[in-house]
Amino acid sequence: MKLLVVLVMVAVAMFLISLYLFAPGQSARVLGAVALAVVMAVVWVQVQRGNVLRALQVVTYGVWLVATGVVMASGSLRTPIIYAYPVIILAIGLLIGGRMAARITLATIVVILLLAVGETTGLFRVSVTPAPAMFGVIQITVCLLALLLVRVVVKSYQAGLTELRSLGQSLTVRTQHLEESRLQLQQAQAVARVGSWVMDLATGEFTLSAESQRIFGMTQTQPEARVSMLECIYPEDQAQLERALQGAHQGQGFDIEQRVVVGDTVRWVRLKSDVQRGVHGEPQYAVGIAQDITERKESESLIQSLAFFDVLTGLPNRRLLMDRLAHAMAVWSRHQRKGALLFVDLDNFKVLNDTHGHFMGDMLLQQVAQRLSGCLRQGDTVARLGGDEFVVMLEELSEDTEEATNQARIVAEKILDVLTQPHQLDTYSHLSTSSIGITLFGHLQEGIEEPLKRADMAMYQAKAAGRNTFRFFDPSMQQAIAERANLEKDLREALESNQFRLVYQPQINDRAESTGVEALVRWQHPQRGPVSPADFIPLAESTGLILPLGQWVLETACIQLAAWATQPVMAHLTMAVNVSPRQFHQPEFVDQVLATLARTGANPHRLKLELTEGMLVTDVEDVIARMMWLRHIGVGFSLDDFGMGYSSLSYLKRLPLDQLKIDQSFVRDILLDPNDAAISKMVIVLAESLGLTVIAEGVETIEQRDFLSGQGCQTYQGYLYSRPLPAAELETFVQSRLTSQA
C-alpha cells in the first residue's frame, strides 16, 4: 500500500510539472504549488502514522481541489489542466472505490457546467473561440466515460479480488486443516507409538517421520531426515531385516518384529511395509510403519510369567511343569532315556507360618527354591506346585533302570542335605527338613498325571517313615536302593576299619610249575559275612571308592611281593594286580605306583598290572604313554578279559604288553561251544604273532586244560589247581608242588 502512495505522489509531482507548464498565469502557478505542498505534507504525516488509506484520500481530494482551483483561477474551460479530471476520477476509482469516484465525477460535471456557463455569458474571459458548450459537453462525456470505465474496471477488479480473497481464505482454511491434520496425525502416532517411513529402493535411503525417529532414538534435525534403520537394529536381528528389504526390492512386502538399541535400552519394534510400484510396474518405494511394541512384549512376557511361573519364588508353576513333563515323556518314546520326578514337601511348614507369620514362611520358600535350583544340572526343572510343595524333574537319566534309580537317589540325598542346613530368616535361624517321594517315568506308556501321582504317594511314604528322608514308589526298587545305600555305607566303613584282605590264586604252566599269582581282594563283613566281589567292586567303581581300595590292594600286594623275595621258594613268583580304568586314568597313577614300589621295596620286574579292554576305548595315546613309563622300570602288563570288549589291533600291537588273558567265560564252555573254542584259538594265535604269552583263567577240569594245551596255551589259572589262598596257605601250596616234583 505504501508503494501505491509513492506512485500517487510521483503522479502528483508530474501534475505539478504540467501545472507549471500549462497554467496560464503566474498567480495560478504559485497558488497551485502552495496548495500541492500543503497536500503533500498532510499525506506524509498520514503515512508516518500508518493511515495509508487516509493518505490516499488526501492525495486524490487535494489534487482534485488544486486542479479545480487552477481551472477556476484561469477562467477557461479549455485550460489544459482540465484534462486531469478523467485521470483523477480513474485514480479515485482504482485506489479508493467506485462510490467516491462517482461523487468526484458529479462535482467535476458541476464545475465544468459552471465554466461553460461563465464562458458563454462572458463572465470569464477566454482567448479561444470554440463554443464552450460544445467543449463542456465533450469534457462531461469524457468524465462520464471515465466513470463508466471505473465502474467496469472496479467491478471486475472487485469480483476478481473477491474470488481471490475467497480462494485465499479457502487456501488458508485448507492449510490450517492440513496443519491440524498433520499435528493430529503426529499426535496420534505419538500416542499409538506408530511412525511412518519410506525407503527409496533405488538409493536405499530412508525418510522417517518424527515418531519413527523417536522410536529409533534419533534426533530430527531436518524436516525429512534420511538415515539407515539398519544402524539402529539389534545386531542379531539385522540379518532378518536385510532379508526383508531384499524381498522389497523384488516387490514383496513384510511384517517383522525387531529389537532396536536406544542408548542403554532395547526396544521392540514392529516393521510393516508394502511396496509402491512405478509407472512400468517396477518396485520404486517401500512404504511402511514402525510401531513401538515394547510395552506389548513386556506385557506378553509378564502374562507368560504369570501363566507359567510362580510369583513368590520365580520357579515354573504346575502348568509349565506339566508341559515340560509331556515333552520329556515324548522324547523318551524316541530315545528310551528315563527321567525321574522328586516330590519335595517341607516338614512342619505350617508350624513356622503359625508361630512366626506368613512373611517368614515366604522367605523360607524363596530360600528353598534357590537351594533346590542349585542342586540340579542344566536341563533339569524345579517347580513349585503351591504351598510348601516342590517338584524336581530330572531328565536324560540312564537307559538302565537301576542306574537311573541310583542317579535319582543321589540327587535326593543332595536335596535332603542342603535343605537341612540352617535358613537365616531375617534375624531368626530356622532348621527345616523335607520328605521326598521319587518315581521314574518314561518306561511306561501313561498319561502325564500318573508320574506326579506316584511321586506324591511316595512322598507320603517318606512322611510315614519319619520325615527327613526319601522313598521310591516301587517297593522292590526301594528295597534295592536301600540295600545299595547300606552297602555303600558299609563299604566306606570297611575301608576305614580295614575289613579287606588279599588272597592269591596260583598260575601254573604246562610243566605244573607255579610261575605267579593273581592278587584278589576279599571282604569279610562283621554282620553280612563274606561279600562277593561281584557286589562290591561295581559299587566301588560307581562311587569312586575304587581309588582308595585299589591303592590298598596295590600297597598290600607289593608288601607281600617284597616279603616273598626273601624266601627262595617264593622269590620267582610274579604278582598280578588288577587295576580299574578309573584308577589307571588318574593323572598321578604312575607316581603312585613308583612311590608304592619305593616304599615297599618290591621288585618292579615281579609286578604285573592287569588292565581291561575297556581302558582302550578312550585316550589310547595316554594309556600307551603311562604303560611305557612303567614298563621302563620293569613293571609288566597283562590284558585281562581279552575278547570281552573293544580292542583295535592297530592299538593292540602298539601296547607294551607281556601277556593276554583268555576270559573264563570262554573257557567254561570251550568243550561245548565251537565259538568259544574258536575265540580261544584266535587269542592264542594272536598272542604268538605279537610275541606275547597267554594264560587262561577259570580252568576247572583236566579236559579244559588239555584242550587249551592242544591249541598252544601253556599257562593256566583256576580251581583245577587251587582256589584263591591266603598268603600262608599259598606258600604251603607252592612248597608242596616243589616237593612232589622233586
What keywords describe this structure?
742 residues, alpha/beta, eight-stranded mixed barrel, six-stranded antiparallel sheet
Distance between the amino and carboxyl termini: 153 Å
Number of strands: 22
Strand content range: 15-25%
Assembly state: single chain
**Portion in helices:** 55-70%
Compute the gyration radius: what is it?
59 Å
Q: Reading side by side through the largest sheet, how are the strands ordered?
A: 14-15-17-18-19-20-21-22
Global shape: rod-shaped
Structural class of the secondary structure composition?
alpha/beta
**pLDDT averaged residue by residue:** 80
Q: Summarize the biggest pleated sheet.
A: 8 strands, mixed, barrel
- Specify the number of helices: 25
Low-confidence runs: 127-131, 221-227
Indicate the topology.
Elements: H1 2-22, H2 26-49, H3 52-74, H4 84-95, H5 98-121, H6 132-192, E1 194-200, E2 206-208, H7 210-215, E3 226-227, H8 238-249, E4 254-262, E5 265-277, E6 283-292, H9 294-308, H10 318-335, E7 339-346, H11 349-356, H12 358-374, E8 381-386, E9 389-394, H13 401-419, E10 423-425, E11 428-430, E12 434-441, H14 449-464, E13 470-472, H15 475-497, E14 500-509, E15 514-525, E16 529-531, H16 533-543, H17 546-564, E17 574-578, H18 581-584, H19 589-600, E18 607-612, H20 620-632, E19 636-642, H21 649-652, E20 659-662, H22 664-668, H23 674-690, E21 693-697, H24 702-711, E22 715-717, H25 727-741
Parallel strand pairs: 12-13, 15-17, 17-18, 18-19, 19-20, 20-21, 21-22
Antiparallel strand pairs: 1-2, 1-6, 2-3, 4-5, 5-6, 7-9, 7-12, 8-9, 10-11, 14-15, 14-22, 15-16
Helix pairs in contact: 1-2, 1-3, 2-3, 3-4, 4-5, 4-6, 5-6, 11-12, 15-16, 17-19
